[in-house]
């Protein structure tokens, strides 16, 4: 956008976009998003309440699960205001500064999720490879320190993002490609030198997703080596079964990220709706799936939920 003197400037508001090419059927899309939000928020709140009220769940594994649920709530609540405003009320404008705040929280919670999944893989590594020291290694104070460390790492690495965007002029319009604010989307409508933003963004992605995913793979390589040493086939399956929920959560988080990256880099001519839908999957699916995965695959969580359900029936 150009100012009165012909120079680029920052717009007072940015215009959000629904699903490209969908001029009808927005009510159905709004209903789907409301359903996804309901499942995500209700499911993660249920996990948190269950871990708090059930003493048998006061263990490291479930403390990390609580961190994951709390973070997934953050992801959902970060996108909820603009998504519902866009699809339910057809209100597509967001203030420039408000957009930067939303961008910061969306990316911060996303990077925190990667760190939490890494911490959960370390939990499974200690539980299987060194079970006798499990309670002494993963004490409450260390778990709290790990959680605060993940928060500090994500916050400090993402803190420069709003300021890096704020310094840029905008001369390519004010229409974004999603119903929420993301850093790559803002870069598409910015002009001027965005090399610093791109380089720092790549550094943050490698420093978080890249490093975390490598250590998660390393953890499971060590877990697999330890499991293969176990003589009993039944014991091997039992040990691996304790990792199924976490593996599913890792796949639900990293597969959409990889898919988005692959489409962005190798299928740039893809229809806009493909990019938008994949970005929606990346942000909406993990918070919705994680409570379902752990409720179905984790016996203790399932028992706790059945116990609460039976109490409510009596």
From TrEMBL:
TM spans (from-to): 27-52, 73-92, 104-122, 143-165, 199-223, 244-267, 273-296
Gene Ontology biological process terms in this record: cellular response to lipid
Taxonomy, superkingdom: Eukaryota
Keyword Manganese set for record: no
GO CC aspect terms: plasma membrane
Domain G-protein coupled receptors family 1 profile: 43-294
Protein topology in the membrane: Multi-pass membrane protein
Presence of the UniProt keyword Repeat in the record: no
CDD domains to which the protein is assigned, alphabetical: 7tmA_OR51-like
GO molecular function: G protein-coupled receptor activity; olfactory receptor activity
Keywords, in A-Z order: Cell membrane, G-protein coupled receptor, Membrane, Olfaction, Receptor, Sensory transduction, Transducer, Transmembrane, Transmembrane helix
Any Pfam family the entry gives: 7tm_4
Subcellular location: Cell membrane; Membrane
InterPro entries hit by this protein: GPCR_Rhodpsn, GPCR_Rhodpsn_7TM, Olfact_rcpt, OR51/52/56-like
Homology family: Belongs to the G-protein coupled receptor 1 family.
Protein name listed in UniProt: Olfactory receptor
Organism this protein belongs to: Rattus norvegicus
UniProt lineage: Eukaryota, Metazoa, Chordata, Craniata, Vertebrata
């Amino acid at each position: 956008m150009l100012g009165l003197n012909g120079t680029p400037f920052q717009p007072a508001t940015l215009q959000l976009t629904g699903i490209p090419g969908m001029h009808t059927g927005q009510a159905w899309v709004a209903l789907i998003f409301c359903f996804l939000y309901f499942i995500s928020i209700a499911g993660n709140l249920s996990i948190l309440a269950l871990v708090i009220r059930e003493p048998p769940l006061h263990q490291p594994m479930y403390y990390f699960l609580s961190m994951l649920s709390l973070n997934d709530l953050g992801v959902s609540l970060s996108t909820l205001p603009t998504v519902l405003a866009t699809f339910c009320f057809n209100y597509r404008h967001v203030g420039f500064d408000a957009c930067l705040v939303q961008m910061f929280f969306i990316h911060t919670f996303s990077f925190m999720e990667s760190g939490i999944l890494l911490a959960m893989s370390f939990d499974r590594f200690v539980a299987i490879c060194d079970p006798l020291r499990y309670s002494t290694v993963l004490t409450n104070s260390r778990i709290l320190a790990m959680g605060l460390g993940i928060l500090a790492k994500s916050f400090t690495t993402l803190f420069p993002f709003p300021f890096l965007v704020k310094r840029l002029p905008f001369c390519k319009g004010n229409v974004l490609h999603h119903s929420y604010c993301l850093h790559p989307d803002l870069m598409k409508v910015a002009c001027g030198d965005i090399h610093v933003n791109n380089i720092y963004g790549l550094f943050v992605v490698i420093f978080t997703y890249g490093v975390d995913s490598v250590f998660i793979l390393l953890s499971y390589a060590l877990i697999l080596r330890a499991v293969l040493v176990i003589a009993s086939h039944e014991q091997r399956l039992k040990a691996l079964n304790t990792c199924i929920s976490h593996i599913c959560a890792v796949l639900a988080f990293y597969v959409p990220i990889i898919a988005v990256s692959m489409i962005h880099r190798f299928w740039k001519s893809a229809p806009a709706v493909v990019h938008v839908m994949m970005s929606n999957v990346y942000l909406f699916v993990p918070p919705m799936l994680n409570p379902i995965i752990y409720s179905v695959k984790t016996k203790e969580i399932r028992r706790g939920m059945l116990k609460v359900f039976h109490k409510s029936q009596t």
